[in-house]
Amino acid sequence: MGLPHWSHDRKCFYKYASAATAKLILEKNSLRWALPTSFNDPFDVQFDLRVEYDTDRVIDQALQNIVDLYMGRRHVPNGNKLAMVSNYFERPHLD
Predict the structure, then answer these.
(1) Which of 6, 26, 45, 47 could cross-link with 36 by S-S, CB 3.0 to 4.6 Å?
(2) For the chain, what percentages of helix, strand and coil (3-state, to nearest 5) are there?
């Protein structure tokens, strides 16, 4: 099984490269592409991701988690932004 063949009507393609990389491309007459997993923009890779979920259940669970944080029944690791906010609004302790 060979690689798929795509046709196009473009006269040229562009590849962004630093000056040093462009020099190597011209010297070696070759190109190299990074793996899509190393891209820094998830929209550079086209894929069809579908996540099925019940919106009402997600909202209910999120609200319950917030109440549990406030009541001290749930703890978020230090450094977590949600933990910093919940600690700011920490429920007063009754002695």
Answers:
(1) 45
(2) 45, 0, 55
Tell whether 38 is covered by a domain.
Answer: no
84 located within any domain? yes
Enter the tokens of residue 10: 């473009």
Tally: H helices and E strands in the chain: 3, 0
Domain assignment present for 72? yes
Q: Is the pLDDT of residue 66 over 90?
A: no
Sign of CA dihedral 49, 55, 57, 62: positive
Tokens, residue 84: 């910093």
pTM (2 decimals)? 0.37
Parent domain of 59:
55-88
pLDDT in tens, 15-45: 788 999 889 989 998 888 788 778 788 777 7
Yes or no: say if 91 and 70 are a contact pair by the CB < 8 Å rule: yes
Cα–Cα distance measured from residue 89 to residue 29, given in angstroms and rounded to the nearest whole number: 62
Answer yes or no: is 41 within a domain.
Answer: no
